[in-house]
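Researcher: Quick test of sequence recovery. Tokens follow.
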């Protein structure tokens, strides 16, 4: 299973305790995964669709618990990149179907006439706990999240721009959370790519085990990045050491060609010989090879004097 499926399976095991949170989660799910249909007599029914059996079982149980009606569950196979199963939850009872649409804010009345809304009904998300539940419902209905070992990306697809802006407002109402909107293939996509935002969003929705998984992944990535940085730093230092050593060797050889090498003092000649014999050694290592050993600053001073003699 994918990382997104695993996250959704954990969220589908989350049971809201408060009735207001139950309604908020059902509303969020139906807003992105539900459709209204005529049930006869001018009344409406409602059908919700999902490709995940765990999600279908979860909302069948939640709708039954809150509305005291048992939705019909059917399975259909559709041709979409091969055969794909869809799980359909349907409430066709005339009065209950319309009651669900009205309580979830999908169907309202204006000037004595029914009309379908395309945003989030404010009355459902007055409290923080209800906001969390509504967000969880929308994610289970139309959301996805990538494996953090590959990239950081969480998104929820919305059918209208109004819904996308309302969801953006809901998400941004949480402290230190932010998301953006993009338009793709006729859908308005709420998305975030910041690992901290994704972590906090998973925690808000209740996917706590995958918050820990994300934390571990972040730590592993930071350790790998630090190791690469140190390796690159060591390589750069080695390159600089080799470049400097090559320059020193060229200066010493130039003194030999001019016949002035033998005029060097014993101390300078000792360092020059050590450098010629150890072209990859650092100044500290050359100092340790000297008799008696000297510090890096002492080796550096002697090499500077060799350079001055070569220039003169």
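Model:
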């Amino acid at each position: 299973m994918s990382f997104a499926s695993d996250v959704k399976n954990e969220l589908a095991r989350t049971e809201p305790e408060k009735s207001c949170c139950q309604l908020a989660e059902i509303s969020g799910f139906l807003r992105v995964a539900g459709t209204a249909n005529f049930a006869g007599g001018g009344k409406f029914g409602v059908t919700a669709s999902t490709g995940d059996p765990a999600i279908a079982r979860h909302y069948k149980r939640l709708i039954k618990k809150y509305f005291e009606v048992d939705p019909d569950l059917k399975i259909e196979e559709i041709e979409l990149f091969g055969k794909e199963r869809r799980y359909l939850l349907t409430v066709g009872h005339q009065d209950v179907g319309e009651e669900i649409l009205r309580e979830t804010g999908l169907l309202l009345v204006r000037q004595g006439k029914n009309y379908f809304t395309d945003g989030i009904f404010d009355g459902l998300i007055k409290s923080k706990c209800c906001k969390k539940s509504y967000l969880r419902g929308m994610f289970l209905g139309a959301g996805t999240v990538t494996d953090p070992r590959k990239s950081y990306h969480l998104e929820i697809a919305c059918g209208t721009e109004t819904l996308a802006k309302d969801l953006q407002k809901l998400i941004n109402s949480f402290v230190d959370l932010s998301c953006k909107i993009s338009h793709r293939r006729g859908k308005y996509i709420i998305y975030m790519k910041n690992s901290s935002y994704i972590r906090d969003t998973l925690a808000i929705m209740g996917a706590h085990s995958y918050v820990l998984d994300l934390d571990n992944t972040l730590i592993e990535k930071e350790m790998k990045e630090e190791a690469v940085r140190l390796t690159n730093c060591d390589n750069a230092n080695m390159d600089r050491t080799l470049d400097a050593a090559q320059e020193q060797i060229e200066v010493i050889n130039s003194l030999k060609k001019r016949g002035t090498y033998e005029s060097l003092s014993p101390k300078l000649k000792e360092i020059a010989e050590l450098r010629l014999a150890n072209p990859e050694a650092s100044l500290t290592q050359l100092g340790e090879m000297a008799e008696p050993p000297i510090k890096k600053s002492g080796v550096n001073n002697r090499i500077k004097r060799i350079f001055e003699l070569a220039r003169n």
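Residues 208-258 form the longest helix (51 residues).
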